[in-house]
Write a sequence for this structure.
C-alpha cells in the first residue's frame, strides 16, 4: 500500500479549490457583506502565488468596488495571523502600484484599495464565532500615549458546522464546505482508515448534493489532495483527548448523582475503556488517570488491573 505524507494544511488548499471560481467567490463576498453583485467579472483576482522571501502563499485575494479583500483559511489558530496579513498586503500593494511606482516620490497621493482581512477557521479546537486579532497585540512594547506606525487587523470567523449559521445560510457553498469537512471527520471517527473515510465522505456528499458539482469534476484532485496532506494522527489524537474529557465529565456527573466515590470510579472505568479502545498503553493510561483524578501511582495501577480489558 502506498504511504502518504501527512500534513495538517489540506483544508487550506481545499478551500482554495472550492472558491477559486469567481462565481463561488462572489457568492461568498455577497454573503459576508450583504451585497448583491451579480457579475463575477467585477472581481479582480490578486491572489499571491508565492511570496518568495517568506516562502508563503495566500489563499484568496481580490479587489471589488475599490476594496482589497484577503481571505485566508486556517485549520489551526495562530495569534500571528495579523503579521502574516501584513506581509500579504505589502506584497499585493507593491504589485498593485508597480505600473505607477514612480509616483511614490511625487506630491500626488496614490489611491489604493481599502484592505479587509478575513480568516476562515475550521480547526478542531473550540473558538468563538468571531474573533479580532491585531498586529499591535504582538508588539514587545505597548504605549497608551503613542499610536503605532503599523496596524493590521484580522477578523477570524469560525466556519465549523453549526457555527455562524446566518452566514452559512447566505452562502450555500461555504455551508456545504463545512458539511464536507464534517463528513470526513465523522468517517474517521467511526474507525475507518483515512483512504476509506475520504472515499465514503466524497460518495456521501455527492449523493446528498453537497459540493456535488465540485466533487464530481475534481474528484481525483480532491481525494489525492486530502490523502497526501491530511494529518490523520492529529485528528485521532483530538478524538482521544475528547473521549478522555467526556469520560472524566461522565465520572463527575455520576458522582453528583450517585455519590462522589461511585462517580469517580465510574469515570476512571470509562477512561480506562476509552484508552484501551484507542490502543494507548497501560503506562499512557496510568498517567492520564493520575493527572485526571489525582491518584497515587499504586492506586491508579489498581484501577487498571481491575478494569483493563485486553
Amino acid at each position: 500500500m502506498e504511504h502518504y505524507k501527512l500534513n495538517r494544511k489540506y483544508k487550506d488548499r481545499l478551500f482554495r479549490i472550492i472558491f477559486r471560481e469567481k462565481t463561488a467567490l462572489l457568492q461568498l463576498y455577497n454573503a459576508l457583506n450583504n451585497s448583491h453583485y451579480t457579475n463575477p467579472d467585477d472581481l479582480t483576482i490578486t491572489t499571491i502565488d508565492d511570496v518568495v522571501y517568506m516562502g508563503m502563499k495566500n489563499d484568496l485575494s481580490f479587489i471589488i468596488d475599490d476594496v482589497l479583500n484577503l481571505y485566508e483559511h486556517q485549520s489551526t489558530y495562530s495569534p500571528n495571523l495579523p503579521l502574516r496579513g501584513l506581509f500579504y498586503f505589502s506584497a499585493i500593494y507593491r504589485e498593485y502600484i508597480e505600473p505607477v511606482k514612480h509616483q511614490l516620490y511625487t506630491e500626488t497621493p496614490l489611491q489604493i484599495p481599502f484592505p479587509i482581512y478575513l480568516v476562515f477557521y475550521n480547526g478542531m479546537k473550540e473558538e468563538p464565532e468571531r474573533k479580532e486579532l491585531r498586529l499591535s497585540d504582538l508588539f514587545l512594547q505597548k504605549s497608551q500615549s503613542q499610536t503605532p506606525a503599523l496596524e493590521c487587523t484580522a477578523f477570524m470567523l469560525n466556519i465549523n458546522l453549526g457555527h455562524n449559521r446566518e452566514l452559512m445560510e447566505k452562502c450555500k457553498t461555504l455551508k456545504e464546505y463545512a458539511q464536507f469537512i464534517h463528513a470526513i471527520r465523522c468517517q474517521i471517527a467511526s474507525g475507518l482508515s483515512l483512504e476509506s473515510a475520504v472515499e465514503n465522505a466524497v460518495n456521501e456528499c455527492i449523493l446528498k448534493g453537497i459540493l456535488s458539482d465540485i466533487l464530481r469534476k475534481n474528484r481525483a484532485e480532491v481525494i489525492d489532495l486530502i490523502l497526501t496532506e491530511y494529518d490523520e494522527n492529529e485528528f485521532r489524537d483530538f478524538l482521544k483527548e475528547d473521549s478522555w474529557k467526556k469520560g472524566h465529565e461522565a465520572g463527575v456527573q455520576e458522582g453528583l448523582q450517585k455519590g462522589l466515590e461511585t462517580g469517580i470510579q465510574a469515570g476512571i472505568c470509562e477512561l480506562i475503556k476509552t484508552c484501551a479502545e484507542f490502543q494507548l498503553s497501560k503506562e499512557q493510561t496510568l498517567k492520564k488517570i493520575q493527572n485526571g483524578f489525582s491518584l497515587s501511582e499504586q492506586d491508579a495501577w489498581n484501577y487498571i488491573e481491575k478494569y483493563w480489558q485486553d
Q: What stands out?
A: The longest strand covers residues 67-74. The mean pLDDT is 82.
